[in-house]
Amino acid sequence: MIHFVDINGRVLLLDVHSFNHRRDSADVGPSSAYPDIDLGVTTLDHERFGDLVGDFASALREVPVHDRVPDVRSNV
User: Fold this and answer.
1) Kind of pairing, strands 37-39 and 72-74?
2) Does the N terminus or the C terminus of the chain have fewer Cβ atoms within 10 A?
3) pLDDT at 3 > cutoff 60
4) Is the dihedral of CA 41, 45, 50, 56 positive or negative?
């Protein structure tokens, strides 16, 4: 699902989808090798937007999911 959000005349594009931790086998449970939230930022201009990505990741970590801090990483 792709979301476009207008923020003060600028556009933020979010490509939201599930993370399939069972892609290697149906018998595999969740693993710490895979984050709860993976920010795909390989083509991002890190010099220009790197701080924004860091702030966004920090904000996501501030919202508990099932009473625990979500594991948020980039480009896993």
Assistant:
1) parallel
2) N
3) no
4) negative
Under a CB-based contact definition with an 8 Å cutoff, are residues 4 and 11 in contact? yes
Q: Kindly give, in sequence order, each residue whose CB lies less than 8 Å from that of residue 71, ignoring residues fewer than 6 positions away.
A: 32, 35, 36, 37
Taking only the tens place, the pLDDT of each residue in 47-67 is: 888 888 888 899 999 999 889
Structure confidence at residue 67 (pLDDT):
92
Q: What is the DSSP letter of 76?
A: -
List, as one string, the DSSP characters of 14-74.
EE-----TTSS-TT----TTS-SEEE--TTS-HHHHHHHHHHHHHHHHTS-BTTB---EEE
